[in-house]
Please model this.
Amino acid sequence: MNTKAKERSQIKVITGNAAAAIGAKLARPDVVAAYPITPQTEVIEQISSFHASGEMDCELITVEGENSAMNAVMAASLAGGRVFTASSSWGLVFMYDAILATAGARAPVVMVNVNRETPGIIAVSSGQQDMISTRDSGWIFLIAENCQEVLDLVLQAYRLAEDYDIQVPVMVHYDGFYLSYLSEVVDVPFQEDVDQFLSVLKDQPQRTTLKPGKKLGCGSHGILGGYLELRHKHVTAMERSKAKFDQIDKEYEEIFGRSYGGQIEKYKMDDADVVLVGSGSMCGTIKSVIDEKREQGIKIGLLKMRMYRPFPSEKMIAALKGKKAIGVVDRSLNFGFKGGPIYTELKSFESKLEGAKLVSFIDGIANTDITKENVGKMIDMTGDLANGKDVQEVTWVSYPEAQGGI
Model:
């Protein structure tokens, strides 16, 4: 993250959940609907408190489940309102059909998903499997590293989702139990600055919304050829969101003094021979180990993914091509493939990386931590690959029994 000196600031020590709630409050949504689920519950508790005290002027709908929450905010968005919701894990899965409908309707909903393992083996533990289970639903996905970025990404998400040239729902992800309950120093923006940042949305053409007495088809069946057209427009809008997100990040810096690099953030990448690719809270730990390895003369860098959908392929290829070896760290599984989800997607671009070799690391799932020791092992193995040694393609770092591969 790049920061510039600011004339004024509001420094608070808050959790990641509180940062998400404050970000939503500052965006001035018209409608909020959500249902509590661990570890997201604090987000809605905070918003309920803001609403009860009069700090947040919105329609707060207390629904009977997550599916209703998504349907409520989708309908409010299609009627022209700014909306917000939040969920996690089972809750995200429960609203899946409504998530698909929201994307298909191009409703610019903004929500946070506090990452947690999903159904299968019932787990109350961190992991990005819930994100992976919904990655192809047609939403834009952004991933935060720390509490400050949680707040900043929520605000940037509104600029992205509601942009007239985009109009695609945005989901902000952050690691449950690590960032959700972690208290960190956060620079909370002033309301007038947020109003200025979002004000450009008022000057753009008005999007199509439901109006009393006028017909509007949403989710209509049997449109045949029109369906193909709408899908193509959706896909191309997501592709446009890449450059738009980079632009929004730069504009954010002009007002708030913080920028992250847009789709990706590069840490000590310029002269790196070996690179780790990661996302979310693991990146803070990786940066710490990189600093230590650099003192030992090892040229290691980090490519942090901030945008996951659409996949930032152009930016990643430009940053990674020519490197000797790349280790991709996934906090989720890609059932049916040996490697993690981000690894297998990046693997499809291997021919464009100018000889860079790839290796997959799976860690940080099922209550396992991505520790400094584990990061050190990943860097060492990726370095071995760069030096021509035989390294297995996939390593489950916290599960020694799987060291023989799959």
In short: The radius of gyration is 21 Å. The chain is about 40% helix and 20% strand.
